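The methods section describes the discrete structure representation at length, but only in general terms. Each protein is reduced to its one-letter sequence and a matching series of backbone shape codes. I believe one specimen quoted in the main text would settle the matter. An entry of this sort, consisting of the sequence and the corresponding backbone structure tokens, reads as follows.
***
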Amino acid sequence: MTFLGRIAGAARGTALGGAALACGLAIAPAAQAQEFYRMATLGPGSSPYLVMSTFAQVVNERLDDVEIQVSATGAATQHAMEAAMGQLDFFMWSASVHQLMQDGAAMYANIPQAAELSGNLRAVFAFPLGLYHITTYADSGIESLDDLAGQDVFLGPPGGGATTIMANTIEAATGLVAGEDYTQVQLGWDAAAQAFQDGRIDVYINSTNAPSPVIQQMALSRELRFLGLSDEQLAMESVQAITGRPGGVLGRIEPGIYGENQVNTEAVQTLGSIVGVGAGMHVDADAVYEITKAFWEGVAEMQDNAPWLREVRRENALQALNLPLHPGALRYYEEIGMEIPDALRPAE
């Protein structure tokens, strides 16, 4: 497996923060050492990018001695490997991807060390990836998943977990196979959103919390239709195998949530996922404690002005976790009185 954007050297370092100002002061205060941490997330336009860039922003603003640097390239499958090898500090954890890594399956099938490396990963908190918005323009003639035949469809970035889930879901529900019955568009999140707005692809799929700022932007200029799963499709064993995967959830995109240019008059049934922020076991426990505390204390202040952020709640921080908590995060949750299942307690 080839990883994009190799990290040169360690992701953590120490630098002197600030410089003495020549403002007539006789003695300048000593600069405070600042710890740098490297975090990777999915590309702009994705729900993890919104949540995790906000995570970094909140922490950086509240902790003077910490700076989290965000990289928004590559896939979550890649980021998990890099964090496990100590090349990343924080990454987007996914229950389904972590299960595949533990099993050495799917995209990890040709990486013999994947299962062992999965033991180097720890959780900080979970959050909803959101619902899969299967989006098309109202005048496209596409009104159901069966109509995807012959169309240009963006499932997600190549090699990503979301891409695999959507390809499997469409095949399970309709029998349509990506790359055979419809064209699987090979783009990143940001480029795909732009291509859809330019009319170069027919269907754009994004797993995101509603209302998504990216899709809100699309709805400003043209009418949109969201496609979903029918009751009959949800009852299929092949579909239930996907909705019942680790971290899998079901939900509804309500009519009108994207304004007058959303043509759906009834709620659309679709699937979603629980993901989260993870950390490599190598990251210092005291640092993760301070970072976790700073985020949860600061994020509440932002939720009034960011509706999509209201789904990120501390009471759901342990939802669907299938890897142990980082010792620093565990300390914070115990401190505030949360009940911690034994399975989430790290051995170290």
Summary: The domain at 130-274 is CATH 3.40.190.10 (D-Maltodextrin-Binding Protein; domain 2). The chain has a mean pLDDT of 88. The longest strand covers residues 121-137.
